[in-house]
Every structure is written in structure tokens, then in C-alpha cells.
Amino acid sequence: MTIFQAKEYDPRIERRRRMYVIAGIIVIAIAAYLIYHFRNWREEQTVNHFFAAVEQKNYDKAYGIWNADASWKQHPQKYSGYNFGTFELDWGPTGEYGDIRSHRIRTTITPKNASGVLVVVMINDRKEPMALWVEKKDQSMSFKPPTLDIRIEP
Q1: Assigned domain for 139 exists
Q2: Rounded to an integer, what distance in angstroms lies between the CA atom of residue 100 and that of residue 71?
Q3: Element spanning 31, H or E
Q4: Average pLDDT in the chain
Q5: pLDDT in tens, 28-80
Q6: Same domain membership, residue 46 and residue 31
Q7: pLDDT classification of 3: cutoffs 50, 70, 90
Q8: Total domain count, the chain
Q9: 76: which residues sit within 8 A by CB, 6+ positions away?
Q10: Is residue 116 classed exposed, middle or buried when 0-12, 13-18 and 19+ CB atoms within 10 A define those classes?
Q11: Dihedral in degrees, nearest 10, Cα atoms 45, 50, 54, 58
Q12: Three-class DSSP category at 124
């Protein structure tokens, strides 16, 4: 094919190509936003399930979620560092937050080179937030590590 035998220019092809590029960029931008926004979704769900069990006063289930071990009653000695009695005192009606009736996840913080996520929760519409640590590998929970130097504003 020589220059004199070239196909006639068709603007529809160029317009279609441009639309595909624009659509691709939009899809990539939306995917990036969703990945960023839901990056800690599993950890948020773990905390939601935990507080749902506490609000229903199902402390056995809540303790299982806390330790990421639904069959914790089979081997309670494994969790002697934070046993069920202490857990029940902390999260029951006599605990720091009293009778927990509601919760709302405010934000999540992922420290660099960390094995978990800090989930900041508002409990019973109090002004002071609570930070809980959720391990990424097994979804077990604990209180905010004292070595983690993150200031949480009320």
C-alpha cells in the first residue's frame, strides 16, 4: 500500500479510541478510590461484630471475636494473659464505658510497617474515642499498644 492508496481518515475511530482511554482512566480512578477507602474493611467488620456482641451482652461470643477463636472455651488457659473474667469486667456494665448500647467507627489508622490496624471507635456517643488494635493476619483484637505513639483527638 502506498501513500496514495491509504485508507481515508475516519474521525469515528479516533473518537472511539479517545473514549476508551477516558473510560479506562475513570475506571482506574474509581478502583483506586475504592481500594483506598475500603483497605481496612475486614478490621472494621471485626470491630463491628465485636461491639454487636457486647451490645447484646453476649460476652462469650465477644471474647471469641477478641481472641479470634470461636472455640476459646475448649482451651481457656491459652488466654490466661487476658482471661474471660477480666474481659467481662472491662466490657460489662461495670467497665469503664458502662453498659455499652451503641458504637460508631470513626476512622482507621494503619501505621507504617505494622502488623495491624488501629480502629478508632466512639462508644455510647461519648466525646472521648477508644482505639482498638486489630491484627491483620488473624483478626485478633487488643487495646492500643502503649508503644504506638499516635495521638487521637476527641
Answers
A1: yes
A2: 24
A3: helix 11-37
A4: 91
A5: 999 999 999 999 999 999 999 999 999 999 999 999 999 999 999 999 899 98
A6: no
A7: low
A8: 2
A9: 83, 84
A10: buried
A11: 110
A12: coil
Indicate whether 8 pLDDT > 90: no
How far, in Å, are 20, 67, 90, 109 from residue 29 at the CA level? Answer: 14, 37, 43, 22
Query: Are residues 72 and 133 located together in one domain of the fold?
Result: yes
> Does pLDDT of 2 surpass 70?
no
pTM for this model (two decimals): 0.81
- Which grid cell is 56? 447484646
Contact 118, 109 (CB under 8 A): yes
Tell which wins on pLDDT, 127 or 153: 127
Are 28 and 60 within one domain? no
29 and 78 assigned to the same domain = no
Q: Could you tell me the residue range of the domain that residue 98 belongs to?
A: 41-143
Query: Among 133, 97, 91, which Cα is nearest to 115's?
Result: 133
